[in-house]
Hints:
The protein is mainly α. It has one domain (3-193). The chain has 12 helices and no strands. It has helices at 3-8, 14-22, 36-54, 56-69, 73-87, 89-92, 97-110, 117-128, 131-134, 138-151, 162-167, 169-193. One of its GO terms (biological process) is fatty acid biosynthetic process.
Amino acid sequence: MNFLAHLLLSGKDEKLTVGNYLGDFVRSVQLRELSPQIVKGVELHHAIDSYTDAHQQFQQSVERLRPSYRKYAPVLTDIFYDYFLAKNWSEFSDQPLQEFALEMYELLNKNKAVFPPKAIRFLQFLESYNVLYNYGNKEGIQRVLNGMSRRASFDSRMDEAVVELKKFESDFNTEFMAFFPDLLQFCEKWIMDHE
Length: 195
């Protein structure tokens, strides 16, 4: 899953949310510098990623993209699933998406003293383009894919993937809606088990 989902799946715990955001930015050696609750959020991030990668619906979406995007197919699926989370937001949250996005930027900025430089730069990107909110439209997804394509180590063609999103939107949405309630349940249990 990508950033919108990770933030939503943290529940209302601020430090858990911070750790879940940092999951892709911190190395294990840096965990010693973070509070136990933030470390737990990093662990939740990795648990979400592992659960997602193994889920049948997610794998089905990945396989649709694999012929064209090979090793980037799971990355694209993560981003597409944030698009469908934003599109179906009212199914999973009572808080309006724009309000949630602004709340997350504020929360993350408040805690950025513990962020590595890359996490700070990415937060600036998220906020300046209101990415969390704009995951819900194809222009926002295109902006994210353009950036990822530029950073890829070789010609990934990720910037072309919106074509597949449009072509198979109904299939991806069906798979996402079958998958995400399972992930929500998994996260609720994980958080309870790690209190």
